[in-house]
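Worked example

This section walks through a single chain of length 271. The input is the sequence exactly as stored; nothing has been trimmed or padded.
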Amino acid sequence: MVLGGLALAILLLAIFKWQQRDPEPSFEQRSLSEWLRDLNYRTPWKHAAAQNAIRKIGAQALPFLVEALEERVSLKEKLAGMAWDAKSDRFLPGNVRRQAVCRAFAALGSEAKPAIPALINLLSRGSDTAAWSAGCLTAIGPDAIVPLCSALTNPNWVVRISACQALGGMTNTARAATSSLVSVLKDPSLPVQHAAIVALGSIRETNIFVIDALIQELHNPVSWVRSATAKALGDLTVSTKDVLEALNAATHDTDETVRSAAAAALNRLEP
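Given that input, the structure is written out below as tokens.
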């Protein structure tokens, strides 16, 4: 009886807190949740209308977007690939909900800057929301670079990979992060090294510091890291003597994927 009474008290407290929460913002008599669902529609006009609505709602949407991103999913729901959308009283695929949240952050852009600490906190948990949090931080843009660079030293390798991916997603607007990403090339985790190489290729910073670091990675003992490096050097589109010589040498690598990646990079760089 005591346990039953305690469970009932917890349930009532949860219901009370839900009722006391701030009302969900709306635009043109439609709730934020309804506009979020429209962001995943393929119909162009519906998608555009949802983007406009999110921008009109503005910063008021941020607490609800973060909550939707971090909403916990039970093991049963994970196995079913579904997540409960309490606001609409129906099940939605978990990744579909999170995809809509990322698109909402993309619509808000730098206006979503106040959400950076909350998103970094989600990222730092290293859970299944880390990659989605990284996507939202990418959408916010350069304001997220400094906290993302700090996340590159997080003890959790999943967090470090997600931070690399977020920075790489910003492309050339994340050039301020290149020195931090070069440092990550010495990370003890090979997947993290790989993520940093891909990010450097996406950012396309062409200073000698970055180029030399990538050339060194062509001697990495792991073939898939060397292959990613060859592609990254091609992405930089810098045809210096050192780069061309290093890629030409890589076309004789013992691994076929590395040879192919080096040949493809040379085709991009050489006239």
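What to look for: The two ends are 81 Å apart (CA to CA).
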